[in-house]
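Quick one: co-fold with cobalt (II) ion.
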Amino acid sequence: MIGNLNHVAIAVPDLDAASAQYRDALGATVSAPRDLPEQGVRVVFVELSNSKIELLHPLGAESPIAKFLQRNPSGGIHHVCFEVDDIIAARDRLIDNGARTIGSGEPAIGAHGKRILFLHPKDFSGALIELEEA
Ligand code: CO
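Sure, here it is.
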């Protein structure tokens, strides 16, 4: 059911420093920062030929990334995102298989303007999984 790996998201304590590191030391193409207030994040996209890295930084004190950085002060992998063709069909299949969504279970609109859902890390070996409708 899942398709390509869309991105790996990394929470970072210093967005400018992390962007510069991916651009200068790793030689990647890095976007300008973008604020996504509904998700409480400021994000930088690192473009790879086969996927993306999202560098996430908290936007506001209520940001889920702020809590993550309290537990992981030097940053860390926050989630992985898989593409699906039909997010409602994917959600229903996952729920039938005992997985839980985070929040209402209704898709939100993600950073790329597409429908997304998050799945509970306790159901996936401790990894937070995002689904994005391709
Ligand atoms: Co994501």
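If it helps, The beta strands are 5-11, 29-30, 34-36, 41-47, 52-58, 76-84, 108-109, 115-119, 129-133.
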